[in-house]
Amino acid sequence: MITLKNIPDDLHQRLRESAARHHRDLNREIIAQLEASLTERGRETDELLAELEALHGKLPMVDHSLVGALKQQGRL
User: What pLDDT, on a 0 to 100 scale, did the predictor assign at position 26?
Assistant: First the structure.
């Protein structure tokens, strides 16, 4: 059991409106919103990590001797 205190009036109103749109009572709406929020964050993180790993695999390997030579020529 959880009791929420000091919920700002505008947030309370938005929750009530969202609950009405979804045909849920306020308690069920709050639970649904929390579940969606926490699930999306986990999924977003996993998706971002997968995208980064895929991009990393596409990057060319750096030839450090070439980088050093370009630095000496003033190109980097």
Answer: 95
For every residue of 3-72, DSSP letters joined together read: ------HHHHHHHHHHHHHTT--HHHHHHHHHHHHHHHHHHHHHHHHHHHHHHHHHSPPP-HHHHHHHHH
Q: Where are the domains of the chain?
A: 10-59
Give the whole-angstrom CA distance, residue 5 versus residue 9. 11
pLDDT, averaged per 10 consecutive residues of the chain (76 residues), comes to: 92 96 95 86 77 85 80 76
Question: Could you tell me if 32 and 24 are in contact, meaning their C-beta atoms sit under 8 angstroms apart?
Answer: yes
Contact by Cβ (8 Å): 44, 51 = no
Of residues 15, 8, 9, 7, the one with CA closest to residue 37: 15
Query: Both tokens of residue 44?
Result: 């977003």
